[in-house]
Amino acid sequence: MRHGATEGNAWRRYVGRGTDEPLSAEGRAQCLRAGSLPGVRKVCVSPLLRARQTAELCFPGASQLVADDLAECDFGAFEGRSAHDMRHDLAYRAWVEGDCRGRCPGGESPDDHARRSNAALTSLVHDAMAYGQKTLYVVAHGGTIMAALSTLGPGVPGMDNYFSWHVGNCEGYVARAWLEGDRVRLGDPWRFTRLSEVG
Fold this sequence. Notes:
The chain starts with 6 loop residues before the first helix and ends in a 7-residue tail after the last strand. Helix 5 (110-130) packs across helix 6. The protein has helices at 7-10, 25-34, 49-58, 90-97, 110-130, 142-151; strands at 42-45, 63-66, 138-139, 172-180, 183-192. By secondary structure, it is α/β, with parallel strands linked by helices. It has one domain (7-197): Rossmann fold.
């Protein structure tokens, strides 16, 4: 599940690993509209405040297992700025012209982020399976979700397109996870907009 909105989201800024801002009033309202799953005992979260606050509202009473590497992409020099702010920034324009696939100056590329966040997710899935846990709840970021679904899919056509897995704030995906050797695979994903759809 992606966290609720922040002030930076509203201004369409790059809000990544280096920006630890709280949910905005609208972000809190989104969490309330998404609903809650009060029976969940544990939820895995990014260390960033917006994810932890979302988990508090949407999974009330659940203990939070913080996984540092679930944090959003590090946008480096682009962090906290909008596309409009950087319209004359040559480094930003080159990054966009490269389909946003390169490394942000002083930060990460989508591939760097995917390696980091997928390693964290893989560890969490391994632990859940080892303890016989049937369901794993994760509250993180749009980039974390896109990284997982575009790279951990089992080679299904279309699943490797990073940007096609974008979700709005307080939305997410449910996916089946399994192991191929030590590698976690995700399949049969479906998008949800309300937690009541997840059950």
